[in-house]
Structures are given as C-alpha cells and as structure tokens.
Amino acid sequence: MTTLPTSTDRKLGLVIDLDTCVGCHACVISCKGWNTENYGAPLSDQRPYGTEPMGTFLNRVHSYEVQPEAGSAQTVHFPKSCLHCEDAPCVTVCPTGASYKRVEDGIVLVNEDSCIGCGLCAWACPYGAREMDQAEGVMKKCTLCVDRIYNENLPEEDQIPSCVRTCPAGARHFGDLGDPNSDVSQLVESRGGFDLMPEMGTKPVNKYLPPRLKDSWDDQSLLAPMLAPVADEPRGFLSWLDKTLDKIPGGSA
Amino acid sequence: MHPAPSVIIFSTLSGLGFGLLFWLGIDPTPPTGMTGFIFFAIAFALAVGGLLSSTFHLGHPERAWRAFSQWRTSWLSREGVCAVGALCILGLYAAALIFLNIHIAILGWIGAALSVATVFTTSMIYGQLATVPRWKTPLTPALYLTFSIAGGALLSGRTTIAIALLFFAAAVQLAWWQRGDKAFANSGTDLGTATGLGERGTVRSMAHPHTSPNYLMKEFVYVIGRKHAMKLRVIAFGLTFALPLILLLLPFSHIFAALAVLSHIAGVATSRWLFFAEAEHVVGLYYGMR
Predict the structure, then answer these.
(1) Would A219 be classed as within a structural domain?
(2) Contact, A12 vs A176, CB < 8 A?
(3) Residue A231 banded pLDDT, cuts 50, 70, 90
(4) Hey, which end of chain A has fewer CB within 10 Å, N or C?
(5) Per the domain annotation, does A162 fall within a domain?
(6) Is A126 in the B-facing interface, judged by CB distances under 8 Å?
(7) Looking at the domain assignment, is residue A7 inside a domain?
(8) Testing the interface with A: which of B53, B215, B281, B282 to mutate, by most A Cβ within 10 A?
C-alpha cells in the first residue's frame, strides 16, 4: 500500500559525517557491487567503455566548495543516497503500490515486480535518490542493504549496509534513529546533525553531521609547546661533537 | 524536466478528448445517429489515443493495470480510475445515442463529471510536486481544466462559448507563466538548504559524482528548450488562442473552424512542451544546475 504508516517501530537509517568523508567513492563502488549481485534487478550500465558512460547508482558522492564571508573556502565531500523519509513523497505518488515504507523498520523499498516504470516517484523525490534502471525499466533505490542487515548467514560485523562497512574514513554510521539512546542518535545530538531540504517537509531519517570549522593561520596549535626544543645547548658528547665540527674549516649553517 | 513526447501527446490529445466528451455529456440535445458517431469517434480517438500514448513512456506497460489500485494516495492512479470510468460510462451513453437514438441524460452528466475529474487528476500529478516549484500551484489544475474545456467547446462547434473560454484560458496561461518565472526563487530551496551548508557560506558544486550525465540529469535538468522559451511562448500563445479567436470571429466557414481547431491543437502541444522543458526540478541544485 502506498499509504504511509503513521509511525514505524524503528527508524533505521544512516548518519553521514561530512567532516570525515574524504570523497574516495568507496561507498559508491561497494554499493554498486553488493546491489548488483543481490536484492532485485542488477544495476545496469550503459556504454560503460564508450562515450558518455552512464549507469544506475543508489549512492553518489558530490563535492562542494563552501566559501564563508571571510577566510578560506572549505571543500566538502557529500555522499547522497535515499534518506528513508518519514513522510516519503515517493511512496504516496506510486500508482501501483510498488513503493512502500515498512512499518517494522521504516525502510522505503520498491517491489520491482509491481513497478511499471512510470518514473513519478523519482519526480517526487527532492534528493535524486531514485533512479530508473535503463535496462530493466524499473525504479531502483537504496534498500539500506535490507538483505545484509537481517542476514544471519553473514558474520555479525557484515550485518550493516555495504557502504557503512566499506567506508575507510568511518564517515558513515548505521542505526536506529528512532531510539534516542542509540549510538547514531547520540552522535546526531552531540554533533548537531541536520536534515537536507527540511522545507520540503519530507522528514528524512538519515542525518548529516556538519564539517567542523577549519583552523585559521593565526591559531596556535595545542601541540606547539611540545614542539619547542628540549635543550637549547647540547651537552656531553653532543657538545664535544658540536665544538669539534665547528673547528673544521667551512663554517656552519 | 525532460519533455517526453509520449506524455506531451497524451496530455494534449486526452485533454481535448475529455473536454469534448464533457460538452457531449452535458448537451441537452446531443447529436445522434451518424453525426453523433462522428463526434464521439473523434472524442474517443483523442482521449484513448492520448492514454495509449502515455503508456509508451512506461518501463513496463504490460503491468499498467496495476495502476488502478492506489487511488487512496496516488493522483496517477486516480487519473486511471477516472479515465476508465469516464470512457465506460460515456461509451454506454454514446451507444444509446448512436444506435438507439435514446438520450440517457444521467449517464451523460456522470460521464461529463468523470471527464473533468480525469483532467483534474492529470493536472494534480504535476500540481502536487513540491520538487518542481513551477508546477506546485492551484494554477496548474486551472490551466489544464480551462485548456480542456475551452478546447472541447472549440471541437464541439460551440463558437460563442469557445470564444469566451479561450479568452479565459489565455488569461490563466499568462498568469501561470508569470507566477512560474518566480516560483523557484520564491520556493526558498537552494543549494544551501539542499546541502544544509548554506549558513556557513556560499555553496558551489565543485565536482559531479560522475564525469558524464546520469539518469537524474537527463530526466530533471533539461536546459535545451529554455534558450528559445520566450519565442516558443509567443508561438504557443498565438496558435492556442490568438489565431483560433481571429478565425472564430470571422464570418463562419467550416474551413476556418477546422483551421482554428488545428491551430489550437498545435498551440496546446507547444505550450505543453514548454510546461515540461521550462520546469526546473530541485534535484538539479545538487549538480549546481537548474
């Protein structure tokens, strides 16, 4: 049914740390790999070795420059995938009931057998989280690796979304954002996590953590006192070596 | 937004077809026999032809029947239900008129209401989308409904009503364009809110996720048409309203009436092409584009 649940038991989602993301795109590749081989239709590529290659991706990394009024600009790498919104506009517009939001964990999924490929859900999504697969003619989107997180055949450390498992910078976190005591909720609380396009009223479950402010050139490093020379004048053997070397013609630096 | 030809053909032809069906449905003395057959055949050809065309943009047209199920939330599903309802009921109404010479007025009224409802639901598919600020306005249903009913009046030969309605539809079109040009800026959505980084400074897209355009960019960031948008608006306005009005105001002749109809259809198609080509989806912001 495309009627949204009034509430979900859990709100599984991602927390993405824009401070630590290094823009390596490893999450993009691992997502493409896992989701091509597992749940639903494979993520096709068009002209992969030709001109203007194109393909279906459930996760993409943008790069932005933020220029403050004063000071130097900051580069922010920005991974973006489905935010599993509480008021998901993509679900209610679906004419066939292929799109749905699960009551038990809030994951937004597409039943590909019912999808007619009309594309309206992609039109309704402000985030560009849904992509029509050009080979299969059905809508693809992030499943939050629903086939990993409940998969008891996998080792426990692998029972998290592929992108989270892969991120070498630890910039992606997975958990229940409906539980205020969960690690991810605490992280959002302490770091001031925010929503994308809150004015759209979609109530995204996924949160983004802001980049920390950059140092200024005038800032004194906390480590500076430790970098001071321990002894201004050498003593003992080093003192003798110093003096001896000074005596050799040729001067010193 | 990418202007898919199938969707433009659909909304142009079906809009006119359901507009004609509306007038045939509420007509107290509808045409019967052979005349009735011709009128209904034209109306059904336009409405059904348009609907069939719209299935060509589907990834899986063979599953289209599933689209009747989610009318509780989906305007697209409601459109399907209303369209099939209108066609079935007016099919009976037309058959009674053509073959039995019986006018079942109540069927005509229900069918007319469903025809209007079909056009309204079509317009709401676009009018509901907060992601396309140019479309998200009550003026969008007003635009589709006035175009459909004015076009229907023109097709059914109601000259006086058609003239009045064409003037009205022209005013709605101008108001829709006028509002639409400011809609994106007024929506308050920009790259700053899209990334949540706007309060820290000016955000600029530095690198796209991939080196060549993807589905999202092809579907939602369509910039080709915008170059000539103003010229096309003048052409659309002239063909949809100005030329048909001049032809209708001249002494009546069947040739002028036919030319007025053809001009109107070409104009509506141009206007619908612009409806898509000029529409900017907020996802373009993520790519530093509109």
Answers:
(1) no
(2) yes
(3) confident
(4) C
(5) yes
(6) yes
(7) no
(8) B215
Tokens 């038990």: give the residue: A104
> Chain A window 68-107: which residues touch B at a Cβ cutoff of 8 Å?
68-69, 73-76, 78, 80, 89, 91-98
Closest chain A residue to the Cα of B193, Cα to Cα: A197
CATH of the domain spanning B5-287: 1.20.1630.10
Q: Give the domain ranges of chain B.
A: 5-287
**Predicted TM-score of the model (pTM):** 0.90
The burial class, CB within 10 Å (0-12 / 13-18 / 19+), for B253 is: exposed
Judged against a pLDDT cut of 80, whether residue A230 lies above it is answered with: no
Based on DSSP, count helices (H) and strands (E) in chain A, helices before strands: 8, 11
B203 — phi, psi (to 5°)? -95, 135
pLDDT above 70: residue A252: no
Would you say residue A221 lies in a domain? no
Q: Which of B131, B191, B204, B210 to mutate to probe the A interface, most A CBs <10 Å?
A: B131
Buried b (16+ CB within 10 A) or exposed e, A12-30: bbbbbbbeebebebebbeb
Contact B156, B20 (CB under 8 A): yes
